[in-house]
Description:
By secondary structure, chain A is mostly helical.
Amino acid sequence: MKVALTNNKRFLSGLMFIGIGAVAIFIARDYPMGSALRMGPGYFPIVLGGIIILFGIWEIIIGTLKPDEVKGNWSLRALIVLPLSAVIFGILMEKAGFIPALIALIFASALAGNEFKFWEVAVLAVGLTIACVGLFIYGLGLPYPLLQGH
Amino acid sequence: MELFNNLILGFSVALSLQNLWFCFIGVFLGTLIGVLPGIGPLATIAMLLPITFNVAPVSALIMLAGIYYGAQYGGSTTAILVNLPGETSAVVTCIDGYQMARQGRAGPALGIAALGSFFAGTVCTLLIALAGPPLAEMALKFGAPEYFSLMLMGLVTAAVLAHGDMAKSLAMTALGLLLGVVGTDVNSGMARFSFGFPELTDGIGFVVLAVGVFAIGEIVSNLGDPEERQVFTSKVKNLWPSKEDLKVSFMPVVRGTAIGAFFGVLPGTGPAIASFSSYMIEKKVAKDPSRFGRGAIEGVAGPEAANNADAQTKFIPTLTLGIPASAVMALMLGALTIQGIAPGPQVMTQKPDLFWGLIASMWVGNLMLVVLNLPLIGLWVSLLKVPYRILFPCIMAFSCIGIYSVNNSSFEIYLTAIFGVIGFVWLKLECPAAPLLLGFVLGPLMEENLRRALLISRGDPSVFFTRPISLGFMIATLVILVIMALPMIKKRREVITG
């Protein structure tokens, strides 16, 4: 079976591990290494970075010998929209308050799905917001403003 | 006699009205979320963790333990009714449980799962009460080298026995250790890997990591590859298994409990190993193995008992040594730390009410599961019918509020979003995240103990091999690694986990 390297699970994992390990060592190069007796803050991360790189190389070798295809699709829409909805929530929590943040989160995250029915999401947003205000703000007493102006 | 006094103390704590209430809430919420397809116990606990912050430590832990069992049982319900395992250990329950549901025997399947778990829970509660104190006493004698070797053993077992490719699991463990390094170094006060963000000098929150990887990453994956669901619900009426069912299931439950308890005490092994082993053994000893895969009740009873026994005995190393035996336990220890309690063998002597109260509450929680699920099964079934497009925004809302409430900081939300993306990539590349989380929690502890051990030995690494207990752990680590790398066993392992 021939699998393109860009779709080869092991090969890609290997690249990722090497990348992460290299970045870790690069950043940690300025941390004092110390000696085995008195380890500096750089010792542990650099050793770990090295170990991760070794595993990465291993994965690349095995991946080229025994290719292993990535299953399913990359669901780009959800991959972009869903984390963004969390980011919107974070921004609005600080700028606009609990209720707008939550409603925006529900609408935005629903957009990540394959079906988006406006009225269904609207009902869900209202219902869930009421439930969350009741549970978190009044029930658990979290100190967040429901609405805040500028 | 001391055992009884301890258990009495425990039950007096667990049976207080307040703690019963928290136990109930935990079990209820845990089952509620655990029933949702695609959400395992880990994501459930991570999501619900913040609601325990405002509660007293004992109650918080009791609630978390309740969430844990609830989530596990909820997962079995989904496995039986929809054939969708929430986590790897429920895969086994799917095999015969779903077949039973198709034959209209969903009720007895759910019933035996609950009863089997309850039996395992009862035995294991006693086991923890018996084994806990001597182990903690032994652990008090551990020095830095012993702790380091023990943690190394735990991490290696976790990685080696995880699902799929061994090299990847080991690499993910190392990556977890590396993520654990992020933050201020205790010895030098130097900020490491903080990328200029002051928020990162306190390290990455483990809730952030867990929710990002296990909730958001998982949702993205579910949205990309929607699974078909067919719920067998019309016939869930009689939950009580027949006399014949009980008779056939009794020995599998006993064996499953023993297997689960054995694997549970080993740090690092996940519940999947226990339930798979139990299933294999039941199939071997059965008079007619061909029934397995076609709705054999033993195939549900044994693995479910094993699963629960494993979940429960995982508390032994976690509570007595202060070393999380699984990713879920890592979350529990994290909760303990947030409550201001340093995990370790001293918890038992310094906070006996917490220790024994938690143990007694495990039994209470298991009993509640049995009692709860009889009247509530209708609710779980209707929950299973809720379409995913409604469920996942709710999960997002709970996750985001939960994370924000940990530190009242939006930065953590952004970090969670990033880990969501990374978690999805790991899912796609089949890089297991559970060993990573374990490494993440153990990272700082391991570094600290490594430094201390080498300081004591004046920089001589042979200290790990000259002290007998440490040497024992090192040999065990090596043996596990070698055995699992043997071609013959490697193949079998692939058959089981792949």
